[in-house]
Amino acid sequence: MNPRLIQLLTLSLLVVPCIGSARGYRCDIEPEVVVETSSSGAITAVCQSADKAIRFLAQYRLHPKRAIRVKVVEREIVSEGYDAFGCYDSRSELVEVMSYQAILEHVECPEMYGEPLDAVHFAGVVTHEVAHAVMQHNLLTRHISPAPQEYLAHATQFAALPAARRDRIIRAKDVGPWETGDAISDIYMAFDPGKFAVKSYLHLTALENPEEFIQVLLQANWFYVYVP
User: Fold this and answer.
1) What are the C-alpha distances in Å from 138 to residues 34, 61, 84, 179, 191?
2) Percent of the chain beyond pLDDT 90?
3) What is the pLDDT of residues 59-97, one digit of tens each?
4) Which residue, among 225, 222, 150, has the nearest Cα to 193 in the 3D structure?
5) Contacts of 126 by beta carbon, 8 Å cutoff, 6+ apart
6) S-S: 33 plus which of 8, 27, 114, 121, CB 3.0-4.6 Å?
7) pTM, two decimal places
8) Which residues pair with 83 in a beta bridge?
9) CA distance 141 to 220
10) Which one has a higher pLDDT value, 200 or 7?
11) Are residues 126 and 50 in contact, defined by beta-carbon separation less than 8 angstroms?
């Protein structure tokens, strides 16, 4: 895999605040989500994707504490030296995602979870980054490490996939959920984001008391989290 595409989705650690918006559209959902874009074509996809993230996380008692801003940009996004389809800046509290067309124009052979990036996976990019925003709104410490952030963001993104697509990726990745004693780490995620996503989704959705584990994630300061 091209090393510049290993981290398709950046962590919420951008040091430069995201740029101001062009136009703001309020999605017809609660809590408030505002889409900033110069094209009305992306609004429906972004609003629907944000709604999926909010609804999925709500079942684990994670709710946005304030409005979420999503800005669709027509330029490349680079963080930590890697190309990214989307990012969440915790300082400006702004989600940025490249438009679908911008990704196709600027990224050679874009992929997601080992599949060519299409409209379904583009929606997943938005879902992923909105999940980062919701998680940041609910932190139990000032900062958490990358692994727990990505666990929940990837699990949310994966849950939002159509069932047939999700099942196909699960079969292709051929891994089970995280097991007791496993270390959920950003190193594993960098090695194969798809396997990381599958393991996280299968683990979270199989837990008898997922809220308890999420509380662990919300205050994890190490570069890995051990599965109890």
Assistant:
1) 19, 10, 24, 25, 28
2) 78
3) 999 999 999 999 999 999 976 666 789 999 999 999 999
4) 150
5) 45, 46, 49, 50, 53, 70, 86, 95, 97
6) 27
7) 0.88
8) 78
9) 8
10) 200
11) yes
Interval 95-126: pLDDT, tens: 999 999 999 999 999 999 999 999 999 999 99
User: How far is the C-alpha of 22 from the C-alpha of 181, rounded, in Å?
Assistant: 47
Residue 172 identity = A
Residues 42 and 22: beta-carbon distance below 8 Å: no
How far, rounded to the nearest angstrom, does the alpha carbon of residue 62 sit from its chain's CA centroid? 15
The type of residue at 144 is: I
For 139-153, how does the pLDDT look when each residue is reduced to its tens digit (9 = 90+)? 998 888 899 999 999
Angle between helices 43-58 and 119-137 (to 10 degrees): 50
Spell out a b/e string for 95-133, using b for 16 or more CB atoms within 10 Å of the CB, else e: bbbbbbebbeeebeebbbbeeebeeebbbbbbbbbbbbb
Is the peptide bond prior to 31 cis by the omega test (within 30 degrees of 0)?
yes
Alpha-carbon gap, residue 105 to 99, rounded angstroms? 10
Alpha helix (H) residue ranges in the chain: 43-58, 100-106, 119-137, 146-159, 163-173, 186-191, 193-206, 210-217
Contact of 12 with 18, CB cutoff 8 Å: no
- What is the tens place of the pLDDT at every residue in 21-59? 445 899 999 889 999 998 888 999 999 999 999 999 999
Q: Tally the C-alpha atoms within 13 A of residue 29's C-alpha that lie toward its C-beta.
A: 20
d(CA 49, CA 163): 15
Q: Among residues 49, 7, 11, which one has the least CA distance to residue 153?
A: 11
Q: Are 145 and 222 in contact (CB under 8 A)?
A: yes
In one letter, which amino acid is 78? Answer: V
